[in-house]
Design goal:
181 residues; alpha/beta; six-stranded parallel β-sheet; 6 helices; 6 strands; 41% helix; globular
Length: 181
């Protein structure tokens, strides 16, 4: 089982004391959670460090997420170098998996391959890359296809009846597109 955890905010919207976050992770792990998808809305690895350390101490999986913020091919701030360096910081902090959290569906198909390449360059080839998006832009299926072609290891989908809109891309449509003729 897995959960999304907001770094220093744990499951709330305020920053908690480090001991509260660590104890929460300890109890969640003891009660059956195995994978902790850890993120910080500002991509501040230091705000995720206590959670990462607590997950590792509990001998569970720390999926450290990078929030996708702007077009990495045209942004002067959130460019490929930014994502490469951030992936390196996540790996150095103890990530078992690097997550790409495209919560607003901003990633464009043409940016998928360069983004995966930048993250691999920063984190190394040993860490799996997990892609999570929402269909708010209506191009998430095309992005998922490009992520697959780029070598992304894990991609989130939803069954057709629950896919699209604010959910994930359709697994049924993805499978049909991958099947070809």
């Amino acid at each position: 089982t897995q959960m999304l955890i907001r770094g220093a905010n744990a499951v709330g919207y305020t920053s908690y004391h480090d001991t509260v976050v660590a104890r929460f992770v300890e109890l969640a792990a003891r009660n059956g959670l195995d994978v902790f998808r850890i993120f910080d809305c500002f991509n501040d690895v230091e705000q995720m460090r206590v959670t990462i350390d607590a997950v590792r101490a509990a001998r569970k999986v720390a999926e450290v997420c990078i929030c996708y913020t702007a077009d990495c091919l045209s942004s002067a701030v959130y460019d490929l170098a930014y994502y490469r360096e951030l992936a390196a910081k996540c790996a150095a902090a103890g990530a078992h998996v690097i997550g790409i959290k495209d919560m607003a569906g901003l990633l464009k198909p043409r940016a998928a391959r360069p983004l995966v390449e930048a993250i691999r360059a920063g984190a190394g080839d040993a860490l799996p890359i997990h892609f999570h998006t929402h269909c708010t832009s209506s191009c998430s299926l095309a992005v998922a296809l490009e992520m697959s072609a780029a070598g992304c290891d894990i991609i989130d989908f939803a069954i057709a009846s629950m896919a699209d809109l604010t959910s994930q891309p359709s697994l049924n449509a993805f499978c049909a597109a991958m099947a070809g003729d």
